[in-house]
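Backbone shapes recur. Consider a single case.
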Amino acid sequence: MKIIKTKTEPLTEEMLRDASGKLVHVPVNEMPKLGSESETENVWFAGHVCGFEKAEIYLDMTTGEKVERPEIFYSLLMTDGSTWPLSKTVLEIVEITKEELVSLSESEK
């Protein structure tokens, strides 16, 4: 297991490029809980990364006003067609082996 991004370091596009083509496990991916302004939940996932997506949001969603500086969001694109949004606060990404991926899949059955 090789760490691509620790929980404490800032996410960079270089890290996301490094993850592309690799099997990864994202054991920590703290996202806002739906329907709550203060609670979060861990949305972990694992799989084969084929790339990443960057979104620049120029609209303040609370006021509906356009902003000068966009809010940036990243997602990992997986070979199975799924897209996973990445936390802007607490996130860990590790490279795993095929055996570790199979083990994770089996543990969720």
